[in-house]
Target: TonB-dependent receptor
Amino acid sequence: MKLTTSTNRYNKNKITKVMNTTFTGLAISTLIFTNPSFAQENEDDVEVIQVSGIRGSLEKATEVKRSLSVVADVISAEDIGKFPDQNLAESLQRVSGVQISRNRGEGSDVTVRGLSPDFTRVQFNGRTLPSATGGRSFDFTILPSDFVSALEVYKTPSADMEEGALSATVNVRTPRPLSSAETSLVTSIKAVREDNSGETSPDISALYNFVNDDKTFGITLGAHYDSRSVESHIYEAFGLEPGSEGSRGPTPTLDYNLDGDTDDSFRFNHATNFSQLNEERERTTLLATMQFRPSADTDIWLETMYSEFDIVGALPLNSFRWTNVLGSVVDSDIVTDSLGSEGLIQRLEIAGVDNRNNARTTDSNDKLTSFSFGAKHTINENWEIEAELSHAKSENVISTLSLEVIGRANAYYDFSNDYGGVPEVGYSAGYDPLDGSSFRSIGVNGNLDRPTEDTSTDFRIDVDHSVDWGMGIYSLEFGAKYTAREKFNGFRSIGVSAEVLAGLLGETYDPTIEGGSFDASAYMTAYNPSGFFDGYGGSASYPSQWLSADVGKLLDTVSLSTLVSNGTLTEGGASEINVKENVLAAYAKVNFEGMDDRLTGNFGIRIVSTDQESSGNIPDFSTIRFDQGGAQTFVDTSESSVSRTYTEILPSLNIKYDLTDDVLLRFGAARVMSRPSLTVLSPATTINVNVRTINSSNPNVDPFLADQLDFSVEWYFEDGGMFSVAPFVKFIDSFVVASTNEEQVTYSDLDGSNSVTSTFTRFLPDNGKGSDLTGIEFNWQQPLDILVEGLGFTANYTMVDADKVQASEDGPLLTLDGLSETSYNLVAYYENDVFGARFAYNYRDGFVNNGTNYFGDGSFTDEYSQLDFSASYNVTENVSIDFEALNITDEVLIQLNSLGINRGLEDVGKRFTIGVRAKF
Model:
């Protein structure tokens, strides 16, 4: 085993010691501070012990871990430009208590200790990263891992840490030039193979670090490009719609149970979709960091980062909207359900069902920019002052055009044999699904360059003063931070009617069919995905070949600019929001030690004042119009604005005590807060006639507050071996719940005719009852050199339990959204001087997406596990060949409703990467 040690003068008030442990494919560091303000600020003033070889790494890591008071677990790069996983979220899931959500097979956001991603604050080198999404969670797919030196997960806070994390703070750290004592160039070239699409795409990066001879000036430059050709096979349902036989669709006399009357009420599948999603994903990232150290007491830095993420794709559907029928019931099978309705239609065969085979395209562009300028200066070794100004912006522009087509199929669904699997779906009565003349076009609609922006500007100042006040107090820290953040969700859509579109295409328009339509056969394409749902092991039969609209064929005939100039462009409206937050925070923290250094810790307080201004649009309910063909709702709106201010006081305490030479105890207590989603804080209201809902936001929702206690026992039973148990509890004051009320709403067709009055459900978010969340984490690390040199494993297990909450006013008690009761990781590794390999298995229990959803039957993600493999071969000291296989058992993501009936399934397939990395 190779041991390399480099020692620099370090500041005891900041960091006691840093331990980096590395092995092939995975490097987990234990970074332990008395001030966990983020290691980036101090990485040049620490003792670094770099150990190549897992046995030596674990021995040194355990020695450091048990001597310190506050722990922050960090996943670090094995070397410059070499992170354990290509996706940062997928690395984070190896940490106990951390779970992830996936988007097209990639980790997208993180859940910590059972709380949803909105409760996790993500920062970039200690600064908040905005995200152009509807919530506060950050999508990790926009950032590559090549430039990341460490991911830091803080589960307990101290007063100097920024508020906003009810569950945890994740800091993405990149290296500064002077953290390395040498000039270097690291390059990598990889090929990424997608199993479903059969396509191979490039992944290329270069990272250059320059340091001058006297080590006072350095520059780091990085460039990364990668692409993916994604193909996902998707089944999607929308829940069990309650309906009365006498009020369903344009034919109000459907007799579902064939008993001769139309007086019965049932629940049935609202719609079922089969689709093949194809996306081309491209990501480009540029990094530039300059660092200047004119003296040992002064450090100045300038950091910039730019990342751009493009998605171009299409989702051709084979869709059956069982809620829109122009025909009659052929056969049905109805059973009693547990949702309070008279019966569940588990099998339905029907004539004239809406076969809505649209093909919605996606053209999305995400840009993330980050800039910071800071300096740190030490005065007489007793005062350290640090200040930083930073700005970050995330912006997204997206277009999602759909060529709306409709056929009238004779079809059936049947999920009686397997509620949790894909239902059996097929055609009957001689219907030919591949006959293009069966489909009529009813127009084009969708988002057109719809903008979303999230910006954050911060200024902070931190002071660290060494003191000798007695009672073991050796350091006082205090500081302040001002943050200005603004979130804007715009709305911009295009609609082209069937009549206008027919004229542009030279097709014959018939106003009597489907409310006005034309023959769509010339703009349809047959789809027959290879290996459709290979990862699904069920026995049901379903269409694996279908006709779907093709927007490309449409645009080959008529340009997008022509569609825009002849269609209706809608901007603003009820979906547009703008929320501004100005936050001023101040803190003070005291660091102490005592009892012959067996006791160490800190205590402090943080005061946070928030000024909030929210604006949005309120609909005029007398102007509601519904396009049945496009399933779109239109309404006139007027603007509204609300302002408010609130202040919170957040104390914290962290203690570590060495019980014996081999056993230590840790304790933490804190009051924490997290703000509601920025979209929740808008005064806007939207209405959806298709599912008969009204969704209102509420700018007066208060922040989430919780008191948390953490306790851990760590036993170091041998060199390099450790077993720890860490129970925790969070007393959460309240969650945002949706009050529900039924209202009578009148709407009409687009031209104002055919007025209809129906019952709608209004959802209004507000602060509701809280929950006590308890959990426990187990960690075990065990080298097995006694059996085989270089062999070992790590394992962790997390169990979380929480009181159920009411997702709606006076509604039933439901499990917290996003809460997985159990999760665990198993990693087995082997490494020698030339070759290394790793198997990593991750499991996450099922969790709630939405306890009620549109129709009250809820949406739940089923349990999921994934096995990954990675290996590395060192050709020379500076050149290696790396291989990675993700999801090697071809697992699929499944969603269910409260009856256990499948609401969705996604098969993303396996992914393989092979490449060469060189360091000069």
Q: What stands out?
A: The longest helix spans residues 54-65. Residues 2-174 form a domain with the Ferric Hydroxamate Uptake Protein; Chain A, domain 1 fold (CATH 2.170.130.10). The two ends are 23 Å apart (CA to CA). The chain has a mean pLDDT of 83.
